[in-house]
């Protein structure tokens, strides 16, 4: 898959320690193995995305395979769309610290499916952590609304608990490609939320409605189970990797940090969506 220059949209060529286009725009490759292609005008804030604390918490939590059932469901859905006769081109748009991207890469190897995988995230801290997981995956700091890849180039686009820039997904996906979306269900982490808020909302995003202009649903799956957290660190890490960390009061977060055991409900909806044909 060709990587495009975020400034002029010309293909970037990789040299030893940098990427460069024909217009001589130059992007250094960090020693950790990732490249920052995020332009200032594509930033939402001075330091966009998850901060170092959230990334570290998510990494510790996911490394315990608490969300492995979701990862396995993603891998199964992705490989169903694969063709062993050709390389599978994949972009994880909002890869975070790389857990799901790396698990998919391993699943492709186990299935003897050749794959060209790219992970992007707007958080430099997340991509830096992701780059440590797998040197065979291309990792970039970039905005999912400005993916640095060619039009109609991807067999699979992953958006897992991430923004859904419909037009951009439409642009980069092949006509027969698959968009895989994971979003939280109504009861996701209900026990955690009940400890943080007086009133708990039961509303859940329906990504299919948001994407309805250009995509049609071809797969829907609910992944539900309970998770026993038996340490204050795991409970605190779970909170720190969610938006609830910023919404809850200091008092409620302190109360939660004193717990040594908590059972929470995992309720996640997984979708496969394909482009509507003209």
TrEMBL record:
<keyword id="KW-0479">Metal-binding</keyword>
<keyword id="KW-0489">Methyltransferase</keyword>
<feature type="domain" description="Methyltransferase">
    <location>
        <begin position="85"/>
        <end position="203"/>
    </location>
</feature>
<keyword id="KW-0949">S-adenosyl-L-methionine</keyword>
<keyword id="KW-0808">Transferase</keyword>
<dbReference type="GO" id="GO:0046872">
    <property type="term" value="F:metal ion binding"/>
</dbReference>
<dbReference type="Pfam" id="PF21302">
    <property type="entry name" value="Zn_ribbon_RlmA"/>
</dbReference>
<feature type="domain" description="23S rRNA (guanine(745)-N(1))-methyltransferase N-terminal">
    <location>
        <begin position="4"/>
        <end position="46"/>
    </location>
</feature>
<protein>
    <submittedName>
        <fullName>Methyltransferase domain-containing protein</fullName>
    </submittedName>
</protein>
<feature type="binding site">
    <location>
        <position position="67"/>
    </location>
    <ligand>
        <name>S-adenosyl-L-methionine</name>
    </ligand>
</feature>
<dbReference type="GO" id="GO:0032259">
    <property type="term" value="P:methylation"/>
</dbReference>
<dbReference type="InterPro" id="IPR016718">
    <property type="entry name" value="rRNA_m1G-MeTrfase_A_prd"/>
</dbReference>
<feature type="binding site">
    <location>
        <position position="25"/>
    </location>
    <ligand>
        <name>Zn(2+)</name>
    </ligand>
</feature>
<dbReference type="InterPro" id="IPR025714">
    <property type="entry name" value="Methyltranfer_dom"/>
</dbReference>
<feature type="binding site">
    <location>
        <position position="5"/>
    </location>
    <ligand>
        <name>Zn(2+)</name>
    </ligand>
</feature>
<feature type="binding site">
    <location>
        <position position="8"/>
    </location>
    <ligand>
        <name>Zn(2+)</name>
    </ligand>
</feature>
<dbReference type="Pfam" id="PF13847">
    <property type="entry name" value="Methyltransf_31"/>
</dbReference>
<dbReference type="InterPro" id="IPR048647">
    <property type="entry name" value="RlmA_N"/>
</dbReference>
<keyword id="KW-0862">Zinc</keyword>
<feature type="binding site">
    <location>
        <begin position="97"/>
        <end position="98"/>
    </location>
    <ligand>
        <name>S-adenosyl-L-methionine</name>
    </ligand>
</feature>
<feature type="binding site">
    <location>
        <position position="188"/>
    </location>
    <ligand>
        <name>S-adenosyl-L-methionine</name>
    </ligand>
</feature>
<dbReference type="InterPro" id="IPR051052">
    <property type="entry name" value="Diverse_substrate_MTase"/>
</dbReference>
<dbReference type="InterPro" id="IPR029063">
    <property type="entry name" value="SAM-dependent_MTases_sf"/>
</dbReference>
<dbReference type="GO" id="GO:0008168">
    <property type="term" value="F:methyltransferase activity"/>
</dbReference>
<feature type="binding site">
    <location>
        <position position="21"/>
    </location>
    <ligand>
        <name>Zn(2+)</name>
    </ligand>
</feature>
């Amino acid at each position: 898959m060709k990587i495009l220059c975020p400034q002029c949209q010309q293909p970037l060529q990789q040299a030893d320690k940098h990427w460069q286009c024909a217009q001589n725009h130059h992007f250094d490759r960090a020693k950790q193995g990732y490249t920052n292609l995020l332009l200032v005008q594509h930033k939402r804030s001075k330091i966009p995305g998850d901060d170092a604390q959230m990334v570290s918490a998510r990494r510790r939590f996911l490394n315990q395979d608490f969300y492995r059932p979701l990862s396995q469901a993603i891998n199964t859905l992705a490989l169903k769309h694969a063709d062993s006769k050709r390389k599978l081109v994949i972009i994880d748009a909002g890869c975070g610290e790389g857990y799901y991207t790396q698990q998919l890469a391993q699943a492709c190897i186990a299935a003897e499916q050749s794959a060209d995988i790219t992970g992007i995230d707007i958080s430099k801290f997340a991509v830096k952590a992701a780059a440590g997981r797998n040197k065979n995956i291309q990792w970039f700091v970039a905005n999912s609304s400005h993916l640095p890849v060619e039009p109609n180039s991807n067999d699979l686009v992953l958006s897992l608990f991430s923004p859904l820039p419909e037009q951009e997904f439409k642009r980069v996906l092949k006509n027969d490609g698959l968009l895989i979306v994971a979003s939280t269900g109504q009861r996701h982490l209900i026990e955690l939320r009940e400890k943080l808020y007086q009133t708990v909302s039961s509303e859940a995003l329906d990504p299919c409605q948001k994407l309805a202009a250009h995509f049609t649903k071809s797969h829907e799956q609910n992944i539900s189970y309970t998770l026993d957290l038996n340490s204050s660190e795991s409970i605190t890490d779970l909170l720190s990797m969610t938006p609830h960390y910023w919404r809850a009061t200091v008092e409620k977060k302190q109360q939660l940090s004193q717990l040594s055991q908590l059972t929470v409900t995992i309720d996640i909806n997984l979708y496969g969506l394909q482009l509507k044909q003209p």
